Hints:
Strand content: 15-25%
Number of domains: 1
Helix content: 10-25%
Largest sheet: 5 strands, antiparallel
Oligomer: single chain
Number of helices: 3
Shape: globular
Amino acid sequence: MAAELLPAGVHWEAVVVPSYLGDRVLARLGRESGAVICDPYGHRLIWLVPPGTTQGWVVPEATCVQLLSVAQHVTVPPGWCTRSAFTHWVRGWAEHGLTDARLLYVVLDAVILAEHGPREHESGAQR
């Protein structure tokens, strides 16, 4: 069985995080992290979260974090693939399930703050 291109927004949404942030997020989440896909060519980690749970997230454009939901797709490796030069699981779907989206958002926000400093909201006020 090969990797499959699957639609986001049906069984899960995907949070795509560049490796420079994703490695730190994964370390902070530890055992609380659900399934994570590694895309070594894109230098990114991809968390799977329940559908509809990223609505309202605010992530700075400069971080290159992407929220993938309806009408977008993710390359999902086969369940057994944990080490590969291609897309593979860092934490498998079968063993770890979906990540709690609220927890992921809090940790991601803290990592972004540590890496990029305070950010301005649309109103111009700092958080």
